[in-house]
Amino acid sequence: METSFDPDLIHAIFKLVCSSSAERDEETEAVDVEVGAGASKKSRPTTAHHSALSVSCELLRLFVAEAIERTAIIAEAEGANKIEPTHLERILPQLLLDF
Q: What is the pLDDT of residues 7-31, one digit of tens each?
């Protein structure tokens, strides 16, 4: 099996996204919210099951590998020896639609 992303790194990214999302949600005023309905999103711990992290790592690895492959094809078609950001910009819309 090919090397994948570190599950601890992916978990840290998930925690960062969840905490920033919770902060944004707290900044906006909610309408018709019950008082005392539960803990706020910010105070809840962020947990992830090991198998979910493993699947996320593998999906991210496949996404990056496919992006590199498609970008290399575009660069090769243009006769470039190096992948440039403009090559990635060209394939990104279709890549995101495919995934």
A: 888 888 888 887 776 666 665 545 4
pTM > 0.70: no
- Compute CA 87 distance to the chain's CA centroid, rounded to the nearest angstrom: 21
DSSP per residue over 59-71, as a string?
Answer: HHHHHHHHHHHHH
Q: What are phi and psi of 7, to 5 degrees?
A: -60, -35
Indicate the pLDDT class of residue 46, thresholds 50, 70 and 90: low
DSSP 61: H
Could you give the CA distance from residue 67 to residue 98 in angstroms, rounded to a whole number? 11
Q: Percentages helix, strand, coil for the chain, rounded to the nearest 5?
A: 65, 0, 35
